[in-house]
């Protein structure tokens, strides 16, 4: 697989400051695909300087021209869709069809949405005797995870560019090749030098240097709660803007009036998709006690269908982690309905699609983010009980409600402590704000709310 041996800084691929590299591994066969440079504080500093230097001109570029560059970027992503999908499949392990439809499809939609928003957004508003100007925050340090490697990048870079910010990106060490392809696309789209910069490297080295760099005005992070907490603390100490998109433990609430089979099948598909490595996955299914065993049987059958279709998880550590959670679930007394801790194949970081029944709200399975293909089914007595269970974690990223009557589902959803809820299987909307209540994060991505994260206001009184 093609890889650059340098960093994309100030509009060109430049040699890295140090000699260390990161091996990129295909999780489906454990073979090394390529090596990329492991960036240091020196590389980050060069990238931040380039972004600072480019900021005044980009901030002053008319929104219509910024929109045209983002539109061109979207078109390059479309033109190179096959190459991107193949790269995501190689370094993340997701099945090629899923890479094409979701790992390429979602970022293309998001880039397209920001091409339109940049052109139409009101960067100036009147309030009484004031004119309020919405101005770009400055240099953005973006730190992204591997689970949706291109989507997570585009969800930060596209709105930042639309706002007039410049960016330094530190992508996940497991998926740097997709990030390099993105940098090529930015270059091809004619985005001016220094507006977007890429430093590949390790979190505690390059990521840490970026999050704490004095020349960064806003840090936007997606990943684990542990790292997010540290980044938030560092940003707070420096009085810097910060956006954190962290974990989730979302509830899929099936009310008794729902189409049970549909709700269970869609729920299982949601958890198994991307091998369970989705922060907004509905990893807790809540079923009324009278329908419980029927739902468990349906879920077991549905999960078995994924045995041959599911991709591996991203790396050996993640495989160990997920298997550890499955073993813990058994040890805590949950009932294994499908899958289990034994790896289904000799080679590759595969985990069997796993379903647990008799999971109670205080079990580890029901409280911690597993980030693997593991579904827990919980039993509730009535709606109040279901709500208590649904809201009973530190997280609040997503969720789902199913009911025969849409109004009943909406009434329940309005009482959930979470940033987004899909009603009876509602579709993903790239314009709807995405982000968490409680410890699932701070700030929102996507749509106009995502754009507002990269703007600050200046009020002129007359
Ligand atoms: P992570 O370490 O939080 O990784 C996210 C990003 O932060 C990566 O680019 C990472 O670099 C970087 N990073 C790590 N330590 C850093 C530091 N001290 N300072 C600055 N940046 C740092 O997450 P992970 O290790 O990949 O996954 C662990 C768990 O996090 C998963 O099992 C899952 O529960 C959760 N997770 C959540 C999401 C989400 O979308 N909310 C996404 C991924 C993972 P490296 O790639 O070098 O580590
Ligand atoms: Mg990590």
From TrEMBL:
| Source organism | Streptomyces fructofermentans
The residues covered by the Aldehyde dehydrogenase domain are: 13-459
- Catalytic site positions: 245
The record's annotation in PANTHER family points to: ALDEHYDE DEHYDROGENASE, ALDEHYDE DEHYDROGENASE-RELATED
Q: Do you know which PROSITE patterns this protein is assigned to?
A: ALDEHYDE_DEHYDR_GLU
Which keywords does this chain's UniProt record carry? Oxidoreductase
Secretion signal: which residues?
none
Q: Which InterPro entries match?
A: Ald_DH/histidinol_DH, Ald_DH_C, Ald_DH_CS_GLU, Ald_DH_N, Aldehyde_DH_dom
Instruction: Tell me its family.
Output: Belongs to the aldehyde dehydrogenase family.
Q: A single Gene Ontology molecular function, please?
A: oxidoreductase activity, acting on the aldehyde or oxo group of donors, NAD or NADP as acceptor
The source's superkingdom equals Bacteria
What is the name of the protein in this document?
A: Aldehyde dehydrogenase
């Amino acid at each position: 697989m093609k890889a650059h041996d340098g960093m994309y800084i100030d509009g060109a691929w430049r040699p890295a400051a140090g000699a260390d590299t990161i091996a990129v591994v295909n999780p489906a066969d454990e073979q090394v695909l390529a090596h990329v440079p492991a960036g240091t504080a020196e590389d980050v500093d060069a990238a931040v300087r380039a972004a600072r230097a480019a900021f005044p001109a980009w901030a002053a570029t008319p929104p219509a021209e910024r929109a045209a560059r983002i539109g061109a970027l979207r078109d390059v992503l479309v033109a190179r869709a096959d190459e991107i999908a193949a790269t995501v499949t190689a370094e993340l392990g997701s099945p090629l069809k899923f890479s094409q439809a979701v790992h390429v499809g979602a970022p293309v939609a998001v880039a397209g949405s920001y091409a339109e928003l940049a052109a139409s957004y009101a960067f100036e508003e009147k309030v009484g005797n004031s004119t309020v100007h919405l101005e770009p925050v400055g240099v953005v340090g973006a730190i992204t995870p591997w689970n949706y490697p291109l989507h997570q990048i585009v969800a930060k870079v596209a709105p930042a560019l639309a706002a007039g910010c410049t960016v330094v990106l530190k992508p996940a060490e497991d998926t740097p090749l997709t990030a390099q392809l993105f940098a090529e696309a930015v270059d091809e789209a004619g985005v001016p030098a220094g507006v977007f910069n890429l430093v590949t490297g390790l979190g505690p080295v390059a990521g840490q240097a970026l999050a704490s760099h004095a020349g960064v005005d806003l840090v936007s992070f997606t990943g684990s709660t542990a790292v997010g907490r540290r980044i938030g603390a560092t940003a707070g100490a420096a009085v810097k803007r910060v956006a954190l998109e962290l974990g989730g433990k979302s509830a899929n609430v099936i009310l008794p009036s729902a189409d049970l089979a549909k709700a269970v099948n869609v729920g299982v598909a949601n958890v198994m998709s991307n091998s369970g490595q989705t922060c907004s996955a509905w990893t807790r299914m809540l079923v009324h006690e009278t329908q419980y065993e029927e739902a468990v049987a349906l879920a077991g059958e549905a999960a078995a269908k994924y045995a041959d279709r599911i991709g591996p998880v991203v790396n050996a550590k993640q495989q160990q982690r997920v298997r550890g959670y499955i073993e813990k679930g058994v040890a805590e007394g949950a009932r294994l309905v499908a899958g289990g801790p034994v790896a289904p194949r000799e080679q590759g970081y595969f985990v069997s699609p796993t379903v647990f029944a008799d999971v109670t709200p205080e079990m580890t399975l029901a409280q911690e983010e597993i980030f693997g293909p593991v579904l827990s089914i919980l039993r509730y007595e009535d709606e109040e009980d279901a709500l208590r269970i649904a809201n009973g974690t530190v997280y609040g990223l997503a969720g789902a409600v199913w009911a025969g009557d849409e109004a009943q589902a909406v009434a329940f959803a309005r009482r959930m402590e979470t940033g987004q809820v899909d009603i009876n299987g509602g579709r993903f909307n790239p314009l709807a704000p995405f982000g968490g209540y409680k410890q699932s994060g701070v700030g929102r991505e996507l749509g106009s709310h995502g754009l507002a994260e990269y703007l600050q206001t200046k009020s002129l009184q007359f």
